[in-house]
Amino acid sequence: MNFSFEVLKTDATGARLGRLRTPRGEIKTPVFMPVGTQATVKSLRNEALEELGAQIILGNTYHLYLRPGHELIGKLGGLHKFMSWERAILTDSGGYQVFSLSELRKITDEGVRFRSHLDGAEHLLTPEKAAEIQLALGSDIAMVLDECIATPAPREIAEAALKRTTAWAKRARAFFLQCASRNGDLRQWQFGIVQGATFPDLRRESAQQLVEIDFPGYAVGGLAVGEPHGVTCEMTAEAARLLPEGKPRYLMGVGRPEQIADYVARGIDMMDCVLPTRAARHACIYTSEGKVLIKNARYAQDQRPLDPACSCSVCARYTRAYLRHLFAAGELTAAILATHHNIHFYLDLLRQIREAIEFGNLAKFSSEVQARYAAGPA
Ligand SMILES: [Zn+2]
């Protein structure tokens, strides 16, 4: 087993500087993980991701299970080999997409039955199946299947989902450990997921129950799905307080640049979000001065880089006027350049956050970022 996690420093806000070791390299935390839904981070070649310094990316179990299929990927040597990415990969359980994309889903204690959004074929995703798919993919970190509910949710719905999430987590862990005892070192870490909607006591209950099952790391799920940012922070803090100090904590699906430091200050070590890649494809550029909506006419003759303070290779070479033209002309290069910059911006933001924790000034750094994003671009 080549996995380990160490907290190197905790600051006054509760933010942690850490080191996550995986068989495919060391990851400095807090870390932002670019999302590679279909075994690719949209618009980026892996060479670019390597140049940008991404240490870990996400893969989506639901999509890869349906197409091209986990068995095919397994036969071809696993997801890393298939997509030619040697650094770490985290896969989700597929649950979130089943709940948000598929039709005719029916949830029972056994699992969730759904129809593929691609061809309508019926599938059954169980906690065991989600673990089996991720083992075939060979991701470094795998997530257990949880029940995702829409929020705000009535308390009885949240309670029932929490109960099922814990039962499924136990089954997923048992299945994983059985595979490990049969096949030896699986070279994979399996994380549990805290649910509990927007009820502080349910978040605490979920965290306690998962800690009893004993995972090497824990995620906080079902947040940043429309509730106010303050509630996201409060629920994250409730869960994080009860999670073991020495294990990594992953807040799923966040967040906006000005919010990232708030989650880090609640003791979060890992985050992922489609925002930088999706926004890039919609001509929204994240910069040190705030968002730049590059299609705006004001940039037609702007000879400055996308972000004058950015050290990425796109900003070193291309102007705002050029990128605006590429978007106007519908050129694929527009998405490629914008995504490259936005991922650089997020990875660099996390680098600055790690530096701020190191020097004990995260709160100051965070309020500066928030002020810039409130003021908008210069
Ligand atoms: Zn740049």
Order of helices and strands: EEEEHEHHHEHEEEHEHEHEHEHEHEEHHH
Annotation, overall tally of beta strands: 16
**Main sheet characteristics:** 8 strands, parallel, barrel
Q: What is the overall shape?
A: globular
| Count of runs of 4 or more consecutive helical residues | 14
Percentage of residues in strands: 15-25%
- Rg, alpha carbons: 20 Å
Helix content: 40-55%
Distance between the termini: 50 Å
Poorly predicted runs of 5 or more residues: none
Major beta sheet, strand line-up:
4-5-6-10-11-12-13-14
Give the mean pLDDT.
Answer: 96
- Distinct compounds present: zinc ion
Q: Which structural class should the secondary elements be placed in?
A: alpha/beta
What oligomeric state best describes the polypeptide chains here?
Answer: single chain
